[in-house]
Amino acid sequence: MNTTKEAESEPAKPVAACVGGDGATALPTTPCSVVWSKGHAYVLEGAQGRWVGVDDRGRPRALSGDELRRRGWSRSRTN
């Protein structure tokens, strides 16, 4: 078994680098990126640059990057 591929993979980011909402870390820019805010997942739509998710009642909700930064966000489900 060759483990060279595993050794070449990108190292995991420290947890502090993944947490956003404090202005220190920028939101992801890759389409289909997922972030969490207030217990809800938001997915970045490609060309529009908006984050799409659902509210507490399951209704669709779209947020701009600025709105998401104001609300606070993280790359993991636990905020």
What is the element layout, followed by pairings?
Blueprint: H1 4-8, H2 15-18, E1 34-37, E2 40-44, E3 51-54, E4 60-63, H3 65-71
Antiparallel strand pairs: 1-2, 2-3, 3-4
How much is the radius of gyration in Å?
15 Å
Distance between the termini: 39 Å
* Largest beta sheet: strand ordering: 1-2-3-4
Structural class: alpha+beta
Tell me the helix content. Answer: 10-25%
The count of strands amounts to: 4
Principal-axis shape: globular
What's the structural domain tally?
Answer: 1
How would you portray this structure in words?
By secondary structure, the protein is of the alpha+beta class. The protein has one domain. The chain contains three helices and four strands; from the N terminus they run H-H-E-E-E-E-H. Strands 1-2-3-4 form a four-stranded antiparallel sheet. A hairpin with a 5-residue loop joins strand 3 and strand 4. The N and C termini lie far apart (39 Å). About 20% of the residues have low confidence.
Task: Jot down its keywords.
alpha+beta, 3 helices, 22% strand
Summarize the structure.
Residues 53-70 have a biased composition (Basic and acidic residues). This protein has 79 residues and is of the alpha+beta class. The protein contains three helices and four strands, in the order H-H-E-E-E-E-H.
